[in-house]
Specification:
single chain, about 120 residues, alpha+beta, two-stranded antiparallel ribbon, about 20% helix, globular, RusA-like_sf, Endonuclease_RusA-like
């Protein structure tokens, strides 16, 4: 089973809502897009091939940011899409913590392949 640990020295950027451009098309704000790209490129240096099975993801964010933790998780997971795993729908266990920075702001991501989730049998 595959497992990876990725450490990124960066301030976390929460996922921003898509914006409507002057041309009438939706776009992701620049800061969000650049953060997601940073996550992807850093992960590429550790992960050679995306995991195809369900995964557990643990994220520790060392930052004083006041951003919502769920929006930070969304941006990180979107950055991992197609790099660490094929799609974030594969995430069956997600844990994220926001902790005070010790020496610098950073993000530590652990990804582990896991077994498929058991399906419930219909009773009746």
């Amino acid at each position: 089973m595959g497992s990876y640990k990725i450490e990124i020295a960066a301030r976390p950027v929460p996922k921003a809502r898509p914006r409507l451009g002057s041309n009438g098309k939706m776009y992701t704000p620049r800061e969000t897009r650049e953060f997601e790209e940073l996550i992807g490129w850093t992960t590429r240096s550790v992960v050679r091939k995306p995991i195809e099975k369900p995964v557990k993801v643990n994220i520790d964010v060392y930052s004083k940011t006041r951003a919502d933790i769920d929006n930070i998780a969304k941006a990180i997971l979107d950055g991992l899409n197609g790099v660490a795993f094929l799609d974030d729908r594969q995430v069956v266990d997600l844990r994220i913590r926001k902790l005070p920075p010790v020496d610098c702001e950073k993000i530590v991501i652990s990804i582990k392949e896991t077994r498929s989730v058991q399906k419930c049998k219909n009773s009746g």
